[in-house]
Amino acid sequence: MSVFSGLSRPMKAAGVALIGVAIVAAVIGGISALSGDGSNEAGPSGTSSTPPGTSGGTSAPPSGTSSPSAPPSTSANPSSPTPPSPTSPGAGQPTQGQPGQPGGDQQASNKWVTVRVFNNSTIKGLADRAAEDFRGSGWNVNEVGNYSQGVIPTTTAFYRPGTDEEAAAKQLAQEFGIKAEPRFEGIQSASPGVIVIVTKEYESGHKGS
């Protein structure tokens, strides 16, 4: 006896339709179940769901670019240029204080030599005025007097050759524009020191006049 026995014809038709719908639904459900495992392999419109250029979820650097590399190692600091060695002081150059060099120290040292000034003119007080001029320039004048044993042509600083008097007399003569000569016979035995005998032209033509 059929399950549709006792049903009216319309009811039978409806039952057949429902059974057909159930069968179709079962078929579709099976197909869906079978294809469910691969649903993650393809994205919409058949494209892969994984973004282009990525694999396994790890981003790869864009093609054509390289990952940053460590800065190139620098070599040891270049040695700084060696400064030129200083020229030895005094090499090829005269230094002050050497014999024969008219340095300030040497000039000052000559002025310790005793200077004695004598008047050989008729001008009263001329030796005193010359002595004051010499003292004003730093010379060591310790005697002033008159010289009457002869006539001296021009104001002159006399010295004993080979002694400190020579350098002192020449320096004093250059400073005051007078002559410097070795001692003559009449004053050879006089006391040590530079002997300056001044004459009348000192007052009108030399320093201190």
From TrEMBL:
Residues 113-202 form the LytR/CpsA/Psr regulator C-terminal domain. Residues 36-108 are annotated as: Disordered. Residues 42-79, 88-108 have a biased composition (Low complexity). It comes from the Bacteria. Pfam families: LytR_C. InterPro entries: LytR/CpsA/Psr_C. This is LytR C-terminal domain-containing protein. It comes from Amycolatopsis nalaikhensis.
